[in-house]
Design a protein that fits this description.
Layout: H1 2-29, H2 34-44, H3 46-67, H4 70-95, H5 110-117, H6 119-142, H7 148-169, H8 177-183, H9 193-208, H10 223-237, E1 247-253, E2 266-268, H11 274-280, E3 284-289, H12 297-306, H13 320-323, H14 334-340, E4 344-348, H15 358-365, E5 369-371, H16 390-403, E6 408-413, E7 431-433, H17 438-462, E8 469-475, H18 484-488, E9 497-504, E10 515-517, H19 522-530, H20 536-547, E11 548-552, E12 555-558, E13 563-564, H21 571-588
Parallel strand pairs: 1-6, 1-8, 3-10, 4-5, 4-6
Antiparallel strand pairs: 2-7, 3-9, 8-9, 11-12, 12-13
Helix pairs in contact: 1-2, 1-3, 1-4, 1-9, 2-3, 3-4, 3-7, 3-9, 4-6, 5-6, 10-20, 11-17, 16-17, 20-21
Domain Sulfatase N-terminal: 246-531
Transmembrane segments: 7-29, 49-67, 74-92, 120-140, 152-170
Enzyme class: hydrolase
Length: 601
């Protein structure tokens, strides 16, 4: 009788723990609001909350049965849920985005978390993790000495929970019963994952972003349709011939943007972008539409290198670099085009190679070499900034251009201006009023000041090289440091526009300073401006740009630079847009028919 009572108590404690952990995830997702978490669970979305609790119970059973111990399983489960919850809270603060399944790949980025959290909290977390892992391993060892009946129960629960988790991981299949149960009351919002998580709960939103196709197949997709499209653009591309092979340098500058464009922010101490502006006024420059606020670096890089738009992807395909590209054998890009035209291709990222699986992605894109913080020759930093400076990164690029007379394509992703921003520099030239995160913003302003100076010096040194060199420089997104109050004072376009410019060491580009563009237009624009031979694919992008000068999900800029939340095209414009969509589907999800007749080279 006592044992039965004991089992009942243990069962109730487990259920209470599962419900509490689910509430904890909701609490973290909702900016630590107890009211929102409780209302979601017990008043607004009770059915979805208990479906999520069922999923968490399966996860707990898996951990406990794997360890052969309720205590060890509970410890590992608690560590996992706590980590996911805190990561969600931090990501919502900095990027207004929840944690996605693919973000779990970043669990090995120890240096990144140390810099974001600070040495003290990071050390405490590491100690807790070590204690839990040791306890888990110890209990796992002890589990081998359980009685025969206990082993049978344990292995049965382990198998059942494992296969249940596998079934849950296929959440997005139409026949999945859990998905059908969610669909009874869930209002999915694909275009806004933040709202998606709010409406369906953390677990529901997390499951919604599991295993998904890159794009839905267009109704008229076929080899014949793709052949018609590729034939349509062949004559246009063949009309230009150019044998010149200038060096091409892409520079994606971390969080580089102009704070002056934000309402509610007052800056004194000068203009941190003065050197950048002096350069931009003399060449082809303007604003770049960024998909995200406060993050999304890899997605902007994906668009810039491939010419493919995130707007056309399934909304659940949140990070192609980690979810899609590593599974591909071939992906045409500016990198592969440069290689086919006799260029040496180098990627430089002054940080860890595993961020966003860049080691694998760069190999598939076709880079000849990838230089990171461990293989770079120039690794200087500025004062207390933990990241390699832009100046040092540019020296690495210059070293490549000077040593090898073969035409070079170099893609640099900088890190100097990456968060955190406070405490990097002993002396900051700028003061900010009207905002609560003053020190962070002031540190950021000093960062982009140094970045602006380094860019100017870099272009001056390029002008002294004997070979013509073309540069495309852009900021990937705004930093996620502005308060909700300040964000509310600014429009969507204000929070999603960064700076870009194109530079020619021989001053051969047009002087246009008010352009608005998207990253996937960079290559065709550069080729057109510099008089280089375009590909049929770039001709298609050029035609598309005449209709939509920039676009990302829920943000469309027409040829007159007017902003729209919905896509509205006439019949002829829709045809061009559909051609582009079919080509993108063909490469990313289809049979890659368009690779057969030189459409990308």
């Amino acid at each position: 009788m006592y044992k039965k009572f004991q089992y009942v108590v243990i069962g109730l404690l487990i259920l209470c723990g599962i419900i509490f952990s689910n509430l904890f995830l909701q609490w973290c997702q909702n900016d630590l609001s107890v009211d929102l978490a409780m209302n979601f669970a017990f008043f607004w979305h009770t059915e979805k909350f208990f479906l999520a609790s069922l999923v968490l119970l399966v996860l707990f059973i898996f951990f406990a049965s794997l360890a052969g111990s309720l205590i060890a399983g509970a410890s590992l489960y608690t560590l996992f849920i706590t980590g996911i919850g805190l990561a969600t809270y931090m990501k919502m603060q900095f990027r207004q985005e929840p944690v996605y399944p693919d973000d779990l790949n970043m669990i090995t980025q120890w240096n990144f978390f140390k810099e974001v959290l600070g040495t003290g909290p990071f050390t405490v977390i590491c100690i807790v993790m070590v204690v839990v892992v040791v306890l888990f391993v110890y209990q796992l060892f002890r589990s081998f000495f359980l009685t025969k009946n206990q082993q049978i129960v344990r292995l049965t629960m382990l198998c059942l929970s494992f296969f249940a988790l596998v079934y849950i991981s296929h959440f997005n299949e139409e026949s999945n019963l859990l998905r059908r149960a969610y669909d009874r009351t869930a209002l999915w919002i694909p275009y806004s994952q933040e709202m998606n998580y709010y409406n369906t709960g953390f677990v529901g939103g997390f499951l919604y972003n599991l295993r998904v196709e890159a794009m839905e197949e267009p109704s008229n997709y076929s080899e014949e349709t793709i052949e018609e499209i590729t034939d349509k653009y062949q004559p246009q591309a063949a009309s230009t011939e150019e044998d010149e092979q200038p060096n091409i340098v892409y520079v994606m500058s971390e969080s580089f943007s102009n704070p002056e464009h934000l309402q509610g922010l007052s800056i004194t101490g000068g203009d941190p972008l003065q050197e950048y502006k002096d350069l931009a006024q003399q060449t082809y420059s303007g604003k770049m539409l960024s998909q995200n606020y406060g993050g999304g670096t890899a997605n902007i890089e994906f668009e810039a290198l491939t010419g493919f738009s995130m707007e056309l992807l399934n909304p659940q395909m949140t990070t192609p670099y980690t979810m899609l590209v590593p599974k591909m054998d071939r992906l045409p890009s500016l990198v592969s085009l440069s290689t086919e035209r006799g260029y040496n291709t180098t990627a430089i990222h002054p940080y860890d190679t595993s961020m966003y699986k860049r080691q694998d992605v760069y190999s598939i894109l076709g880079f000849d070499q990838f230089m990171d913080q461990d293989s770079m020759d120039y690794t200087q930093t500025i004062e207390n900034n933990p990241y390699i400076s832009d100046e040092a990164s540019y020296q690495q690029v210059l070293d490549l251009l000077r040593k090898d007379q073969t035409p070079q394509f170099v893609h640099l992703v900088t890190m100097q201006t990456h968060m955190p921003y406070e405490g990097k520099y002993d002396n900051v030239d700028y003061q900010v009023t009207g905002e609560e995160n003053n020190r962070n913003i002031e540190g950021y302003l000093q960062d982009i000041d140094y970045s602006s100076q380094a860019l100017q010096e870099f272009t001056e040194e390029l002008a002294d090289l004997p070979e013509r060199t073309l540069v495309v420089f852009w900021g990937d997104h705004l930093p996620g440091i502005y308060s909700d109050h300040l964000q509310a004072q600014n429009s969507t376009e204000d929070l999603h526009q960064t700076e870009f410019l194109m530079f020619d060491s021989e001053n051969g580009l047009s002087q246009e300073n008010e352009e608005v563009t998207s990253p996937f237009y960079f290559a065709p624009n550069l080729f057109e401006q510099a008089g280089l031979e375009a590909t049929p694919f770039y001709e298609l992008l050029t035609d598309l740009e005449e209709i939509l000068s920039a676009f990302e999900p829920r943000m469309y800029v027409d040829s007159q630079k007017q902003w729209h939340e919905e896509l509205s095209l006439n019949r002829n414009q829709q045809e061009v847009y559909n051609d582009y969509r079919l080509i993108q589907y063909d490469i990313l999800q289809g049979e890659q028919y368009s690779l057969q007749n030189g459409f990308f080279n």
